[in-house]
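Morning F.,

Quick status update on the modeling queue. The single chain you submitted on Monday has been processed. Sequence for confirmation:
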Amino acid sequence: MNYENRLDYFENNYEIIFGANFNETLQLDDRTDNQELKKCRFCKAVENDGIHTFNKEAHAISRCLGNKKIVSTYECDDCNSNFGMTIENDLSSFFSVARALFPIEGRKPSYTLCTKNPNEFIKNDIRKKHITIQSGIDSGTVQVDELNKTLTLTQESQSFKPYEVYRAFCKIFLTLIPLKYLDEAIHANIALNPESLNEFCARFGMVPSEFQLNIDMMARAHKLFIPGPSLSDAQIFRSKSGLANHPNFIFIIRIANYAYEFHYFDINKIITNAKKENPGENKAKLDLNCESLLKVIYTSLLNNIDQEKIGTPKITLESFQGRKAITNKAPITFGFHSMEKKTHK
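Structure tokens below.
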């Protein structure tokens, strides 16, 4: 499918239902007025039940990704703490190299990525727009091409579990999606809350272990590296055509120069339709090769940016299916105008 056809496909079949820049001050609230009791989207706890509280500031997008201003009122303190100590730790580690190199300001105005070698580190002073890289001459971490004025950094990330990172993205999606569409987000809810899988499968007479394979297969994202100035925002698109087996939601979140696109299906609708077409059919048939909105953006970038000046965008498909802890190590190349080299004895 070429650029024009892809663009027509998304314009005809999807509409945006949420969009926000990380610099916007935004409080998300499911209540119609402030007199109503708060209710947690994730555990269904209600304010003033004598057990749960809603006193903490709940960031709709994890603070480690640079969000400080978009918050929600529908995440209880227990869920907030639980997410912060589990899946959001993996999310932070997944972005550890990006946080050390791009303007992603977390809780502190600076971020330091330490390596296994105590004498090597990367420190990013975001507000000062200054990065310090300390590396051994023969470490292989840094390669400098003074002729072409490029610096290539190959730095290992902190350890993370890919599927936990996926669950963290699902949590962000479930926080941002408008309340009236929340019941359609079963796919993301099962990924975030595995305990809901058995209940859902019992409703349709499905085998939980088989259905989990569908969830696992969709634990992936199109990833687009966008050279040039950094920007962080999030958008959710919803299908307006009801195309069978296609994503009901497309979630795109950009963190500095990296954009990720996740697809979430309305599994309830897919199974119901499958049963109508083939009575006794208890399997969800998902289109794993559906079109990517980021590919439209990618093609547009290739045609409209000065690649010699700011670099070439790159798009890949990243899997988050793994349950075991891993690290990432991929080269990142920067251009520079001037460089000061210091040698420590």
